[in-house]
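User: For this week's homework, look closely at the record that follows, marking any run of repeated tokens, and judge whether sequence predicts the tokens.
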Amino acid sequence: MALSTESPGKATAACPSQYLTFELGDEMFAVGTLNVREIIEYGPITSVPLLPPSIRGVINLRGAAVPVLDLGVRFRGERTVQTSRTCFVILEVQTDNVRKPVGIIVDAVSEVLEIADQAIEPSLNFGTDVRADFLLGIGKLDSGFVLLLDIGRVLSLEQVDVLANLESLVPSAA
């Protein structure tokens, strides 16, 4: 199963890339807006047996079962605690030649930022709970730094297989 990920190298200084920023714990993360389908209010998650701990289950999105990944579990081993600002970011992830929706649970969505290539440093293991290979890089902002996620790498190949097969396991709601 092949995963497609965006590379910050595709943008130029004259044409910065856009990223949706969000909070998870005490850290600020971002994903490329080309991967973002929508942002929705946190709601009920239907558990599905025998999933990896970081896959919390599925949500009903207009009649389709969309798998939900808890980045808190994936990065820190702790479930994300629901607050009034907790929401789902629905991403599209490329598996083989098909784009599939996958939800991630985030503490809060912040804003869409344009980050030029020259403001992105290579990812290093610098004391964060996130593995360096999960990152496209570290964006330098006036207010600090943002960790740019490579969502294709955040999902292991095993998890992508599970997510790709969830549609057949869970009947869609009408």
